[in-house]
Amino acid sequence: MTSEAPVELQGIAAPSHFGEQSKPNVWVLLLLSLVIVFAAISLYNFFFGATEKTATSTPSAPIAAAEEPGVDVVAPSQPTGIEAEPVPLPAPEKSTAKAKEEPKPEVAPPKAESAEKPATPPVGGGMKQGELVRLNEQVGDYNRQATAQFQFGNYTDAVQWYQKALPLFKQMEEHFVRMRDYYTEKSGADSKNTLAANQSIATTQRNIASTYNNIGEAYRNQGKYADALKWLQRALDVRENTLNESNADTAAIYNNIALVHDSQGNFDKALEFYQKDLEISEKVLGTDHPDTATTYGNIATVYFHQGDTANALQWYRKAAAVQEKALGANSVETALTYNNIGETLSRHGDYSDALTAYLRAYKTFLAKYGDSNNNTKAIRSSLARAYQRSGNLQPFSNWLAAAVK
Question: How many domains are there within the chain?
Fold first, then answer.
């Protein structure tokens, strides 16, 4: 939706050789735990953020590309984020804005595997704490590369980097499962170490779900809808069936699946998944949250595509009301919704009200980006078209100059 993703280690107090039967040194374990937590938090803050539909929304096309509102799209959350869903943050200009072109960054090759053979491996095949930290750093590097590629539209390369990260996440998950089983047998299912291991398992599984989602979003942006649905469904399965979660991240996946169906023209399916998204968003985030407004706008766009301008206007206006309150009347998100309202009114033949809506959007883009910006120009063209069709005789340039004062 328009819904800006390493593993957060939970500081499991495990012996460095977790199969040993001797009692672990408490102070050593505490020190190791603090080191792991600090490293994990640093990596988490650097790479991830919670999935936000609005923050990760990316324009699908320039505003002027068609006489219909741009789809309010959700891009993947920050790639490797534990709590994040989908991925890179594209351009700040939302649903119909064209992403600003920037020079592509040089992509460093993946870090070479350490040639150093580790000391005697822990009993049971688990990893030592140092190995776990190195693995975490490696997966963070892969996801950082994937994010960069996604941001600049290199979706094939982004998929390759995400897929490099997946087996590392799987290794980490297997490690934490072994740790949980070990501590369950040794200390019981309710011991602190067992509970910490369970938390680390869930955290890693969230990363796996986020990576599935990000791969799906990369395919969606390429128009490879069958592949997109396959990976998004995997992400949803992990969230719902493995983690048993019904939260904002789950809602974002429903949103992304709906976007695919909308792009394919499966409007009834799109509405079905947007309603699933909306049910969670309104319950978890509230009706006045920007992400909920994004869902309102996306539902409106489906109705627009179906030619149902009455329902489209109802949902766009509902989105605009929330965005004005939560983000401000002059926010880009609010402006883009008013642009979509203008498009819907134009299609309905209500050119006078369409001018009012377009003008609100135009003033915001003019103030923020200037008259040479592609989106500003596109909205100006929509204004001119609606002005001409409304039967006004005064030259458009004169009217516009007076209107923006």
Answer: 2
Contact residues for 321 (Cβ-Cβ < 8 A; gap 6+) = none
Residues 209/238, Cβ–Cβ less than 8 Å: yes
When pLDDT is cut at 50, 70 and 90, the band that residue 58 belongs to is very low
Question: Looking at the domain assignment, is residue 387 inside a domain?
Answer: yes
Q: What pTM value is reported for the model?
A: 0.72
Give phi and psi for 57, each to the nearest 5.
-70, 140
Same domain, 339 and 290: no
- For residue 353 the two structure tokens come to 């009200």
Q: How far apart are the first and last CA of the chain?
A: 35
**% of the chain beyond a pLDDT of 70:** 69
CA nearest neighbour of 337 among 380, 381, 294 = 294
Domain closes at, from 273, 306, 339: 306
- Within-domain flag for 324: no
Residue 371: which residues within 8 A CB-CB, separation 6 or more?
A: 377, 380
Q: Tens of pLDDT along 367-392?
A: 999 999 999 999 999 999 999 999 88
Residue 74 pairs with which residues in a beta bridge? 57
User: What CATH number has the domain bearing residue 351?
Assistant: 1.25.40
**1 near 255, Cβ under 8 Å?**
yes
The verdict on 351 and 228 lying in the same domain is no
Distance (Å, whole) CA 95 – CA 272? 21
CA 296 to each of CA 30, 100, 250, 328: distance values in angstroms, whole numbers, following the listed order: 48, 26, 17, 17
Q: How confident is the model over 106-149, as pLDDT tens digits?
A: 333 333 333 333 333 343 446 777 888 898 899 999 999 999 99
102-116 tens-digit pLDDT: 222 233 333 333 333
Residues 310 and 282: their CA atoms lie apart, in Å, by: 23
Please give the residue range of the domain that contains residue 294: 26-306
| Residue 319 included in any domain | no
- Nearest-angstrom CA–CA distance, 316 and 381: 21
Final residue before a domain boundary, out of 246, 273, 306? 306
- Is residue 48's pLDDT more than 50? no
Strands (E) located in 61-197: 73-74
* CA nearest to 15, candidates 37, 41, 33: 33
Contacts of 301 (CB under 8 A, 6+ apart): 69, 71, 72, 262, 312, 340
